[in-house]
Amino acid sequence: MIILVLALCAMAIMNIATPSGAGLANDSAAYIAGARSILQGKGYSDIWLDSELEAITHYPPLLSLTLAAIGLLKIDPLRGVRILNILLFGANTALLGLLGWRATRSQAAGIWLAAIFMLNISLLRVHVFALSEPLYLFLSLLSFILIDLYLDNTVNNPPESTPKRGKQKMVWVALAGVISSLAFLTRYSALALLPTSVVALVLLQNNWPARLKSTSLYLAAAFPLMSAWFLRNKLSAGNVTNRSFQFHPITAENIQPVLPNFAQFLLPMESWQAALIKSGWLPGLLVVVGVLLFAWLALRTWQVIMRPQKQAIQPISFTTTLYIFGYLGAVLFSMSFFDASTKFQPRILAPIYVSLMLLSAIAGAWLFQQGSGKPWPQKLTFSLALVALAFSAYSSQQGLSNFTQAGQGYASWKWHDSLLMTTLRNLPSETIIYTNTPPAVYLVTGRASRILPSAIDPVDNLPRGQYQQDLTLMHNDLLSGRAVLALFDTSSLEDALSIQDSANFVNGLEILQKTQGDILYGKP
User: Fold this and answer.
1) CA neighbor of 486 nearest in space, from 423, 430, 408
2) Which residues make beta-bridge pairs with 376?
3) What would the pLDDT profile of 203-248 be if each residue is shown by its tens digit?
């Protein structure tokens, strides 16, 4: 009951945090436009770009499909995503609290876990934005619960002892497979859920018939939707994920956000965060935690393999630890072979944050239970839990104060009150818009626009073969008066255009508008 109350409180917090609507980022344009495209009968396509309509393959479809379903109630996806995230923040609070209770059989641990999730500023910020992470967290947490329901019931009540009950338990496995596939259709990194669940189903059962039956059912339930999505992409766009398989080493730029983001996750004050990073303690702490988790996982795996009849392992702790390494491996693999532009931003780290919270609750409950007759472990656990809650409450209060003052990202007053955006909104419909921020133009004005030509593909950091052709096309459009060039947040023409001879490029054009750090070029 208390966890449900906390879930309602989480929904209230999210409502307060988004007075101007959900926060908007570059990827938000794809999801919102994708939903609008579905509602318009154009399929899941890239209507936010002013080009030949193409099927979206890079962004999995479930978030857009969910927003389109909400749109059937005459709610625009831009408003619908705020409603969805309010519900998801409450649901994720409840699911994590339920996982904590199931893993520890302690109501206090479940309540603490739900409360600290609700109050954590990093996870609150993830749920504020119109992105796929809130839905992905919901589905991944639900898949963990379903796997645990099957494994926990199977260990305590073997299916072969009661055939009817055994069939009922297999439903949990099938549902887990379907939910895992839905998570994959929300974020491609959910691929980590499949090996995590399969390994858990194999190692945490004591006989091969049960292992083979449950694993086969799980995969049979997971693959159809995933295969259908890949087949659709291949038939409609000629590719599977709009990314080529090519090795590009992970750079310092990809890794650099890890430390500041983890510091913000752990501590409430910016000065403390900076001190933690500067001291050099944070990298060591992350390494130590990673080594300890890997060592624990390896030890438990060895014990299960060598003594399967004697070694009982709590499924949630095992699958959560395994998932951390599986998810991290999936992200690093994607960075290395598919998308070099991915960085360890809070939205990418959010599943690891949640997993570490869950493991902290499990460890705290274990330490508290070890304190029977010894007061210091219980006092230590209680004190650490209170400190963590106090830190989270303080950072949440600070974050809410910031969120309520203005919208986040492209939903902020800076973009909606932009004079240049007003100009673009009022241009004739046939005018082509070239800009350095097509997502912002679409989300603020509702107009499609064209991205500036770039010599380097940001996805794989390789030269683009069509660069000169695209550059010539844009130049001709601008000089003919068919198009305008809108540059936002730039004090340097060279930086905004990303071309070698930018000064010559704007020859024959004039500045039609220059205000608030934004510039509009066009034919005199």
Assistant:
1) 423
2) none
3) 998 888 889 999 999 999 999 999 999 999 888 877 766 666 666 6
Distant-in-sequence, close-in-space partners of 484: CB < 8 Å, separation ≥ 6: 424, 427, 431, 432, 433, 434, 478, 512, 520, 521, 522
Average of pLDDT values for 322-343? 83
* Residue of 359, 458, 368, 409 lying closest to 96 (CA atoms): 359
Residue 439 shares a structural domain with residue 399: no
Contact status, residue 344 vs residue 257, Cβ threshold 8 Å: yes
Residue among 371, 364, 369 at smallest CA distance from 386? 364
**C-alpha to C-alpha distance for 328 and 345, rounded to whole angstroms:** 13
Q: Is 508 left (phi over 0), alpha (psi -120 to 50) or beta?
A: left
Judgement on whether residues 379 and 420 belong to the same structural domain of the protein: no
Among 365, 387, 405, residue at a domain's last position: 405
For CA atoms 247, 250, 253, 258, the dihedral sign is: positive
Q: Phi/psi zone of residue 428: left (φ > 0), alpha (ψ -120 to 50 degrees), beta?
A: beta
Asked if residue 57 and residue 76 are part of one domain, the reply reads yes
Query: Which of 405, 438, 465 represents a domain boundary (last residue)?
Result: 405
Domain count, the chain: 2
* β pairing state of 432-435 and 450-451: parallel
| In contact, 138 and 144? CB cutoff 8 Å | no
Of 454, 472, 451, nearest to 463 by C-alpha is 454
Same domain, 399 and 437: no
The dihedrals phi and psi of 199, each to the nearest 5 degrees, come to: -60, -40
- The whole model's pTM is what? 0.91
Chain segment 48-73, per-residue pLDDT in tens:
998 888 888 889 999 999 999 999 99
Give the Cα separation of 311 and 272 in Å (integer): 42
Q: Is the pLDDT of residue 303 over 90?
A: no
Residues 394 and 419 in one domain: no
Which pLDDT band, with edges at 50, 70 and 90, does 494 fall under? Answer: low
The set of residues, in sequence order, having a beta carbon less than 8 Å from that of 442 and lying 6+ positions away, is: 29, 33, 48, 448, 449
- Which of these, 510, 513, 447, lies nearest to 481 by C-alpha position? 510
Same domain for 303 and 209: yes
Is the confidence at residue 157, as pLDDT, over 90?
Answer: no
Instruction: List the domain range (segments joined by +) for residue 288.
Output: 2-405
184 and 147 both lie in a single domain? yes
Same domain, 214 and 237: yes
Distances (CA, A) of 14 to 172, 193, 266: 31, 27, 21
Contact 14, 86 (CB under 8 A): yes
CA pair distance 109, 103, nearest whole angstrom? 9
